[in-house]
Write a structure and sequence with these properties.
The structure holds 2 protein chains of 2 kinds. Chain A is α/β, with parallel strands linked by helices. The longest helix of chain A is centred in the first third of the chain and has 31 residues. Chain A is globular, with a radius of gyration of 25 Å. Chain B is built from 15 helices and 2 strands. In chain B, about 30% of the residues are buried. Classes of the chains: A alpha/beta, B mainly alpha. Chain B: This is Sugar ABC transporter permease. Chain B: It is found in: Cell membrane.
């Protein structure tokens, strides 16, 4: 018995020592990092590893371009190693927040406009005004600068921006006997959509005229703002307070309800469903960002030959009598836990400079949020470039960032879902949404 | 005194006589054999208990603790005690009661269908069927496929515009327009239920089949001699003899489905309009989408209580009629 007890005690002792060693090892590795590393400057020759959490590195279409950018940066800064942390698009927010809660946040985190408010209002990222410098900030397009600002401070950098433009299928327009041009107004868009919706595929499947994303996701709530703005509505009343129980918002919900009820748009669609349908010739029109061309090439299976099938145009005019869109941008934020914020910002500046954005543009049609770069001929070469740049001049800023803004987008998406899927009246949906947004966006 | 007992007590006596000097040698420590055994057993199970404490106990306690605080991933550095604020919010916005309703509807539907279909299949596979060994293997395939893959598969099958389900229904003229399986408030829960059924049925069949194979064949022979038909054999031999298997397997199925997350999250994310928001989805959404860990923890705590009560009631129900010395006493 004594032997067993002694053996047990010995095992416990060994376990405790092992645990202590591993804890010491952690401390040791922290101690090994440069003292006062917060003051590390980009010129320092110490070995630096920048962790970059990104979904683009996990995607085949953009992986190569990102790796090339990192390679070129490390050639300029041999003491810096860029370590990508690939996280899928849908999980990146949760995972980076959980990593931050354990003090293990990556130095740089990729985000996008609908999720950005949550980062901006959190205590896990830092303001970038001083690190980027005023010249850089002044060069940003005003609407994007505003979309990435919180409480007067720039909390992230709009890296790969894109306005939503209207993609239209030329072949379906021709089949439906429509003119060879995109619709100019919302009314015309609905007429065209009705004509296209009467078509069937060769195997008798339904073709949709106009696609609107109505799945309950924050991004779809944000996209719905494009329609609310087009109907001359807003999230805020004249007094600057939240008010969505307005005729304009109700009319927007009626528009959503009509297109789904009349079979012009698929019900409960995600953006990726619309991209799929458009690529297989079963959707006449829908609004999307710069990603369209590459996605269609892949999904259609026809590669560049598919480019002749579609066109891109400004969002049709509606109640405001001018094209109105919103801007989306894949953004970059710097974590508060970063030991090398200066170097992280240096890398962000590098990613958004003319050479790297050109590389990204050639690879994936990415635009630039910097006025000086967007105006360059390389960014206005193709018809798609010209349309995207023209639409950028008609982009309305999103509501000012707020701790509840992402949740508000989700509630807007749910209201859209209620009128399209659950058959709720637009008036009730607007009233319920108003009450929720007033609580969320205090 | 029977010989065996007499021998045992005599052996004990011998051991205690032999051990006495040893106990005295151990500095006055008087440990009986029973205590030594207990100590030895405790030492053996200590690593397992410590492991369970770290992996299950501490997270549960931490979760219960967090449920009384205002804690969000947006600012982890500040924990603010809010007493029952999280619980109050949960009941105030009606989401909790709705998800409890959805969870119970789903669990009861899927487990009942699973049991009925599982019993039918098990009976078929227990009979004299050609290729029954091969069939018993084939039927396991859905169980082997990871849940996430299964969910993605069913998502594509249910895709309204180009999914196989609608293609079949329309080809057979059973539906004149594509059904919105995953985006219709009335169909979404059924769609997930079908996927869950497909995934979990093999487990039910395998367990019931194993139970059936444990029933002695001579009972059926005796029943046949007494003139019992197939139906009587099923209700008076198969079912009573399978009682313990049924109790275990349906309880496992209930618990499995109470905590079902991947099928719901991948196929519907709790939508449309919360039609498939179960407790697991509500808890995840609150904690990791809204980043409100306090409210998420409160949901988890209530979920735990509901499951414990359910299991207790379930065990009590199955114990009814077990006779003297049963769990009722």
């Amino acid at each position: 018995m004594r032997k067993i007890l002694i053996t047990g005690m010995a095992i416990l002792l060994v376990l405790v020592m092992l645990a202590a060693c591993s804890s010491n090892k952690d401390e040791g590795s922290q101690a090994a990092s440069p003292a006062g590393s917060n003051s590390a400057s980009p010129d320092a020759k110490e070995q630096i590893t920048l962790k970059f959490a990104s979904w683009s590195i996990s995607e085949e279409a953009t992986k190569g371009a990102l790796e090339e950018m990192a390679k070129q940066f490390t050639e300029l800064h041999p003491n810096v190693k860029i370590e990508f942390v690939g996280i899928p698009f849908g999980d990146i927010k949760q995972q980076t927040f959980v990593m931050a809660s354990s003090g293990n946040a990556p130095d740089i985190i990729q985000t996008f406009t609908a999720s950005f408010p949550t980062y901006a209002a959190s205590d896990i990222v830092i303001p970038l005004d001083d690190l980027l410098g005023q010249d850089y900030i002044n060069d940003l397009l005003p609407s994007y600068k505003q979309d990435y600002t919180y409480n007067g401070k720039l909390m992230g950098v709009p890296w790969a921006p894109s306005p939503y433009v209207l993609y239209w299928n030329k072949e379906l327009f021709k089949k439906a006997g429509l003119p060879d041009r995109a619709p100019q107004t919302y009314d015309e868009m609905l007429q065209f959509a009705a004509a296209i919706s009467k078509l069937k595929t060769d195997s008798g499947e339904q073709i949709y005229g106009l696609g609107e994303a109505t799945e309950k996701l924050p991004i779809n709530g944000m996209i719905a703002l494009r329609n609310i703005y087009s109907f001359n509505g807003s999230v805020f009343g004249a007094d600057g307070k939240v008010n969505v129980n307005t005729p304009e918002v109700i009319e927007t919900f009626k528009y959503y309800q009509k297109i789904v009820k009349d079979g012009l748009s698929p019900q409960g669609a995600k953006l990726k469903d619309l991209r799929n349908l458009f690529s297989i010739g079963r959707l006449g029109m829908y609004a999307d960002g710069y990603y369209g061309r590459k996605v269609f090439q892949n999904l259609s299976g026809k590669g560049e030959a598919f480019d002749a099938t579609w066109g891109a145009a400004l969002i049709p005019t509606n109640k405001t009598n001018e094209s109105v869109s919103i801007g989306e941008a894949h953004g970059l934020v710097v974590s508060k836990d970063s030991k090398h914020p200066e170097m992280a910002v240096e890398f962000i500046k590098f990613l958004t400079d003319e050479k790297m954005i050109s590389l990204y543009h050639d690879n994936s049609d990415v635009m630039s949020a910097r006025k000086s770069i967007g105006a360059l001929p390389a960014f206005n070469a193709s018809e798609l470039d010209k349309t995207l740049n023209a639409q950028l001049q008609h982009v309305k800023p999103l509501p000012a960032n707020n701790q509840g803004l992402e949740q508000a987008y989700l509630e807007i998406a749910e209201a859209v879902q209620k009128v399209t899927v659950a058959g709720e009246s637009p008036e009730n949906a607007a009233a319920e949404l108003d009450s929720k947004l007033k609580q969320i966006m205090k | 005194m029977p010989a065996l007992l007499r021998e045992t007590s005599e052996t004990d006596k011998e051991v205690s006589i032999l051990e006495k000097p040893a106990q005295l040698q151990a500095g006055g420590m008087r440990l009986s054999e029973k205590r030594k055994d207990i100590l030895f057993l405790a030492l053996l199970i200590a690593p397992a208990i410590v492991l369970l404490l770290f992996t299950i106990g501490i997270p549960i306690i931490k979760s219960l603790y967090l449920s009384f605080f205002d804690v969000t991933l947006l600012s982890m550095k500040t924990l603010k005690w809010n007493a029952f604020g999280n619980y109050h919010k949960l009941f105030a916005d009606n989401d909790l009661l709705h998800s409890i309703g959805v969870t119970f509807r789903y669990v009861l539907t899927v487990v009942s269908l699973q049991f009925a279909l599982g019993m039918m299949l098990a009976l078929i596979l227990n009979g004299k069927l050609p290729f029954r060994r091969a069939l018993r293997t084939v039927i396991l395939i859905p169980w082997v496929i990871p849940t996430i893959i299964g969910a993605l598969l069913w998502m594509w099958l249910f895709q309204p515009q180009y999914g196989v389900m609608n293609f079949i229904l329309q080809s057979l003229n059973l539906s004149d327009k594509p059904l919105q399986w995953l985006s219709d408030v009335h169909l979404a829960l059924w769609a997930v239920t079908i996927a869950a059924l497909w995934k979990q049925l093999p487990f039910m069949v395998t367990m019931l089949l194993a139970g059936m194979q444990g029933i002695p064949g001579d009972m059926y022979e005796a029943a046949m001699i007494d003139g019992a038909g197939k139906r009587q054999q099923f209700f008076h031999i198969t079912l009573p003899m399978l009682k313990n298997t049924i109790k275990t397997v349906t309880l496992i199925a209930c618990i499995e489905n109470f905590k079902m997350f991947p099928l719901f999250w991948i196929m519907t994310s709790g939508g449309p309009v919360d039609a498939t928001t179960t407790l697991s989805i509500l808890s995840y959404k609150t904690a990791f989408i809204d980043l409100d860990l306090g409210k998420g923890a409160a949901t988890g705590a209530l979920w735990l209580i509901i499951m414990l009560v359910f299991s207790w009631v379930y065990n009590r129900l199955f114990s009814i009629g077990e006779g003297k010395g049963g769990a009722m006493h």
